[in-house]
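Technical annex, item 7. During the second reporting period the consortium partners agreed on a shared format for inverse folding records so that results from different sites could be compared directly. Each record opens with the tokenized structure and is followed by the designed sequence. A conforming record, contributed by the partner at site C, is shown below for reference.
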């Protein structure tokens, strides 16, 4: 009996020691979790602060540049450099806006502001920003909506969804391809839902990446979807904005190849949520929409052969850079001293170099 009691005491001591160790581990896990949460909050706040600080100087760059380009007496020699400034400032501002939206989403400060409006008109106006790109690249572009379709949605966020999806479609659709944007109300049991579908005839997205493309900062390095530079936030923001409306987004393969994004949105705001009237609707400015329209007006053109220079005999420099503006800038900077050749790193359907 004594030996048995001694064994039980030993087991109890071991259990107490194990429980104490588990308690310490639980405290440590809690401490680490709280620290990670604080670090995540600091990261979110950092993104928000940096984005705010960058937007002001970018706006002050774009404003004067737009004024100079619209002036009747701007010298021809200034036009091309000013367009380079405008194009790249717009790109940077779009990335800054994306980072700011992600920071607001993480902080829970980006909630829908519902408005009772004609969503068909809203989609048509947003989609019209891509008419010029379609015509320039000879892409068949079909936008199909009802004459009118009333819905209660956040207009700013729906416009961003449309602009992001169409921007993505036009980036990857080669010349003479096809892009479609269709909006229609559900039928039967789904009559209270709205369907928005955007398709293209680009390379499509492999099955193994179709869920991952909605993750933040995702870029598929070895696939066709990495051909264009970006933050990897566009589709993430689309999904987040759709989720805020209580909707769903799916990605499949379009008929005949390419990508097909289908969005389903509730036609009405949740019960108890304030809904504004159409009179309160603020239409996005053309300047804001232009941030999301891909600039395809600057094709890649290899630098022209430079005349032989005795002082630079045999000094040939090959500039390999995908960004057209950077490629030209480097070539121009070196052109007075070297025989410059230019090329791109990747071969794409729209850029054969």
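Designed sequence (site C submission):
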């Amino acid at each position: 009996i004594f030996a048995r009691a001694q064994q039980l005491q030993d087991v109890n001591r071991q259990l107490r020691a194990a429980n104490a160790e588990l308690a310490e581990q639980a405290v440590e896990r809690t401490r680490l979790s709280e620290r990670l949460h604080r670090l995540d909050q600091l990261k979110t706040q950092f993104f928000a602060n940096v984005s705010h600080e960058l937007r002001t100087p970018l706006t002050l760059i774009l404003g004067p540049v737009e004024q100079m380009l619209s002036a009747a007496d701007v010298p021809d020699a200034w036009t091309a450099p000013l367009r380079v400034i405008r194009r790249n400032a717009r790109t940077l501002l779009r990335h800054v806006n994306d980072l700011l939206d992600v920071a607001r989403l993480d902080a829970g400060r980006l909630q829908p502001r519902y408005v009772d409006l004609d969503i068909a008109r809203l989609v048509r106006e947003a989609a019209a920003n891509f008419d010029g790109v379609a015509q320039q690249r000879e892409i068949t572009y079909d936008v199909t909506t009802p004459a009118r379709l009333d819905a209660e949605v956040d207009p700013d966020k729906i416009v961003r969804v449309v602009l992001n999806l169409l921007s993505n479609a036009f980036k990857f659709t080669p010349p003479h391809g096809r892009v479609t944007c269709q909006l229609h109300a559900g039928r039967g049991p789904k009559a209270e839902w709205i369907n928005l579908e955007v398709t293209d005839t680009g390379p499509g997205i492999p099955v193994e990446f179709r869920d991952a493309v909605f993750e933040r900062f995702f870029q598929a390095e070895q696939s066709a979807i990495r051909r264009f530079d970006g933050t990897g936030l566009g589709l993430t923001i689309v999904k987040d904005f759709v989720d805020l409306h209580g909707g769903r987004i799916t990605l499949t393969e379009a008929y005949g190849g390419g990508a097909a994004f289908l969005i389903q949105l509730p036609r009405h705001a949740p019960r108890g949520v304030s809904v504004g009237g159409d009179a309160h609707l603020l239409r996005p400015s053309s300047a804001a929409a232009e941030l999301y329209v891909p600039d395809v007006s600057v094709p890649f053109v290899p630098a022209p052969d430079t005349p032989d220079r005795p002082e630079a005999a045999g000094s040939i420099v090959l500039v390999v850079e995908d960004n057209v503006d950077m490629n030209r800038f480097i070539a121009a900077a070196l052109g007075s001293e070297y025989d410059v050749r230019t090329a791109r790193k990747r071969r794409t359907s729209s850029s054969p170099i």
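Confidence is low (pLDDT under 50) at residues 221-229, 347-353. The radius of gyration is 27 Å. All partners now use this format for quarterly exchanges.
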